[in-house]
Amino acid sequence: MPKYVLNPETLLYEEKREFKYLKHVKIAVAVLAAAGFVFLYFWLWTSVLHWDLPKTGILKRQAALWEAKMEVLEGRLDLYDRTLTGIEQRDDEVYRSIYGLGSIPEEVKNSGLGGLNRYAEIDRLGTNSSLGWSVRWLDNLTKRVYIRSKALDEVGQLAREAGDMISCVPSVPPLVPDPTKVHLSSGFGYRTDPVYGGGENHGGQDFATSSGMPVYATGDGVVVQAEFKSNGYGNQIVIDHGYGYQTRYAHLSVISVVSGMKVKRGELIGNVGSTGKSTGPHLHYEVVYRGNRVNPMNYMDFKMPVDEFRSMTEQRSEDSPVGKRSSTTELLRRSRRNTDG
What is the C-alpha to C-alpha distance for residues 128 and 70, in angstroms, rounded to an integer? Predict the structure, then answer.
């Protein structure tokens, strides 16, 4: 509908002609003005006043809350890590050492969890994210706890069998401790080689005595080696006592046991001789603990009363079939029985 206005000169109402798109121009100007106002508002809010937008503020508060929770989690993980490290040290240095157990293999300690893509989803957050780092830490603790629980189960089983361990540790002399018949001719450690001369590390204890002197097991165990040789150790016996202990009896004239046979402390196993690399009748005796030869004198009291020692060996002789009948047939029979059992 046309719009009419009064013309003051003619005093007549005349039709007012306006620009055809003036209305659209006004709307466009209004929109631009509003947009400029909004832009100015955000610019003043963020750049001048340095305030966060409402949604940004909410997200920052939520992020701060989660960061606080992650710090608490990391603090607990650190406490658990230090506690577990203490348990691992006691297990390795005390418990496993007491019972002669070797250390846990490195390949077991370093074994992984899961597959290659276990952390693929978390890695998308960034390799330095607190969440990814904490998840890996937690998995590592889980693995270590599992490994250590199995190791302590093994220690616990041995602790329940501690009475057996006492009887297995080689803690008595291998010969009758009679100083009128036996004397210590060569100790553990560095010495001059009696055959070739020159220095050598002597890994055992030599007991000089007459040929044929009875030799006894110094602890309960299983014969793992009983061989006749003309060189080196000569005729020798090796007994595995378990708990990390082995003993060697060398240069024997007679071997009264066979490989695989179970023996008791104080049981007759052979007789002194001078076989192999030897300059005269003597017993070369070794104690091996966890693969290392150690001083045998640290495990025995050579001043043990002779009557007490003989009482022990006589009791073993009464209990042992070998003491009554030391034939080859009897030795083989006992070997088969121990193997089957």
Answer: 14
